[in-house]
Amino acid sequence: MPQIPSSNIAFTPTIKAIQQRKGSRHGYAQMEARGGWQTTITSELATFIDTVRSFYLATANAEGQPYIQHRGGPPGFLQVLGESTLAIVDFKGNRQFITQGNLEENAKAFIFLMDYESRRRIKIWGTARMVEDDTALIGRLMPEGYTARPEQVLLFEIEAWDANCPQHIPQRFEAEDVARALAARDARIAELEARLAEATKKG
Questions:
Q1: Of the residues 64, 101, 107, 117, which has the fewest C-beta atoms closer than 10 A?
Q2: CB-side neighbour CA atoms (13 Å) of 182
Q3: Which of 158, 154, 39 is CA-nearest to residue 102?
């Protein structure tokens, strides 16, 4: 019995028909023949995840109404718990609980990771659930020194993931990284100016 391609999680028969009509199905069929998308976390993906400061989480309710929520924190707040499991502490926010309600009706979820500096994007399909009242798990996952108030934990089980090309991604940098680079530049300029002034005095 042939193995079902992991990309089928996104490529429905209707989508494949559109790909066929628009001329891209052959290329994706070749990708599927080579094994399809990744279904577990590689070392490269884990390294990338460790640098993530924000991501978007998509869910939908039982009627199919979609919802996208931004999640952010210090580097490392999105953590790898196993070969196919991601987790974050769900910090207290506006307390609408739309994501949690959607997941209780429909466990399917999607994570979109964007790295503007390196112009990379990762798409992750899977299922998710909220874990309430687990103080030990919260303590394990809570970023050290971060002042946000923990509410619960989000566990995300990966079914497939794919990396996109950098086309059309604008290059942007984190403000604190830019500030650090400018401070280093200014310190170097000050050092060179001091050395020049000292050399001028001696001359």
A1: 64
A2: 7
A3: 154
Q: In whole angstroms, what is the distance from residue 117 CA to residue 172 CA?
A: 5
Kindly state the tokens that stand for 57: 């989480």
pLDDT tens across 139-170, in order?
A: 999 999 999 999 999 999 999 999 877 666 66
Q: Rounded to two decimals, what is the model's pTM?
A: 0.82
User: Using CA atoms, how far apart are residues 62 and 65, in angstroms rounded to an integer?
Assistant: 7
Residue in this structure with the two tokens 């999680």, named with its chain if needed: 9
Give me the CATH code for the 38-171 domain, please.
Answer: 2.30.110.10
Instruction: Give dist(CA 165, CA 174) in Å, integer.
Output: 21
Query: How would you list the strands of the sheet with 79-82, edge to edge?
Result: 66-72, 54-60, 108-115, 120-131, 150-164, 85-91, 79-82
